[in-house]
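Figure S7 source data.
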Amino acid sequence: MNVMQGDFRSEAQAAHHDRTVDVPFEVQEAIRTLLRWSGEDPEREGLVDTPSRVGRAWREYCSGYHEDPAAHLKRTFEEVGGYDEIVVLRNIPFQSHCEHHLAPITGTASIAYLPTDRVVGISKLARVLHAFARRLQVQERLTAQIAQCIWDNLEPMGVAVVIKGSHGCLSARGVRTHGIDMVTSKMLGCFRDDASSRREVLALMDGS
Ligand code: ZN
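Tokens for the predicted zinc ion complex:
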């Protein structure tokens, strides 16, 4: 079936309360196909609105594709009162999805940088994290992208990113093992090149 843009609203969706995001008919059809293939009846009452809900949920999970992470780092402050030490944002919760299974990755990220002459508002590092996390990811790339974005835009002396992630594709399928955290880190600048700076930043990120 060929459905043109602008002609995407299905009956199921028209009946739904939340119409803030239009879920194209093909997308809903794809989800119905998956439900049928899984052994379900997509027409039964409990599942009638599921395709449009899933479509909207996926738009949210993947909202990072419609966002420029670097935009969050454009507004900086140079008035830092002589502060020239490491800034750390620790244990920021995030959710992402693995590109191999579309399974959730939940975890926390700790992000640190050593400013040269400018800093950003406290929430901005978390916004950079979410802009990359709300895409299909592998944890290694997520870690590297956040570090590189801060490095390129704030031009600090050093950047450190440490991510602990729990992968749905490990806990809910395959080896079905719970309680495994995957830890990835990316160090740039002084945190990569200087062992004592790295020790200091890792202690700050780890400390409780
Ligand atoms: Zn996976």
